[in-house]
Amino acid sequence: MSLNPIRLKVHANYTPFSPLYPSITTNNFSTSAIHRNKSNTSPATTTTTTTVSTPTKSEINAPLSTFPAEIETPPQLPQNAPATDKIKRLVATGRAYVTFYKTGLKNVFRNYRASLPLRKSLGLPTYLPVSPPRANGAAGAGAGTGDLGLGRGQYQLVRRSARDVRRMIPFTLILLICGEFTPLIIPIFGSAITPATCRVPGQINKERETASKRKVLALTGYQQQQQQQQKGVTGSQTHQEIEVLVKFAEKEFVESANMQEILRASAVFGLVKNHTRPLAGVPGFAGMYRRGLKRHVEYLGIDDGMIRKGGVRGLSSKEVRFALEERGLGDVGSFAPSGKVEGVERETLEKWLDLRK
């Protein structure tokens, strides 16, 4: 089998899959391209109001307040600037981050408050931030809104606000203790305790790069496994990456896959940090990983149906990127020429939906 050049420098010698867009793939690509496409990947600017409006059933986008606000940091100083000026800028930068974090925490509260009517309609507890229930039969590829009775904007608001509230307490404690030094502490914990509204651009870009590398390693292992199982089989074994990810999102795959395949699919979707988990062979943990992947697949089935109903064109550019990241495709725009990132991302999401029918 002919192997195409991988899209990451650290893995330049191998790749198991054909790139989704071969014409824009380059051997010299680095995930730092994400930074070059900053206008398409920077967090959304949050609203300045003190309340968040609950989306109507026809709205496909979640409120902007579910994304991080912009950080207004002091301008850069020349290298020969006095030490006192550098210290002042450092302190001002720390305060800007604290303001950013406080805004993010306020938005967590506002989003959750806006979601309360929707939570009540779903029969969810008001003060316990559990995620929305999964609709019956939603794990199928063509699943829609099921029995939830919500529009996508409403569903995402309930889901994201519950997720952020669960991270709010530990993050707030760190912010109170560390103050201006919080940006130095947060990378240690990553997104595990950081609400989405409090993730700084550097953290977001680093997580995207890490997710891309993790996916490459997981898919490489999966392809090698497939080759071993198909020795002697004639014909092409080259697959497009998106086709394999769609397979990982099928209910039948989750039910029949072995533990190695479960871990690789989980790594691709960002459910685990890597596809080599020593505890996977311990009784009890194997079922935990399979259940986690099953829940994510069921969620993707619901979200696919909602996006299909509203149309990819109705999604904002930030929502398109968010949807791709949840499907293991958050790095596709990094291979696109400047000015064509959003078009490539929308085309990729549309192709995902077509393959999921």
TrEMBL record:
* A GO MF label: ribosome binding
What does the record list as GO biological process?
Answer: intracellular monoatomic cation homeostasis
Which spans are transmembrane here?
169-190
Superkingdom classification of source: Eukaryota
Q: Which UniProt keywords apply?
A: Membrane, Mitochondrion, Mitochondrion inner membrane, Transmembrane, Transmembrane helix
A GO cellular component annotation in the UniProt record? mitochondrial inner membrane
What range(s) does the Letm1 RBD domain occupy?
182-357
Q: Where in the cell is it found?
A: Mitochondrion inner membrane
Coiled coil regions, renumbered to chain = none
Protein's name according to its UniProt entry: Letm1 RBD domain-containing protein
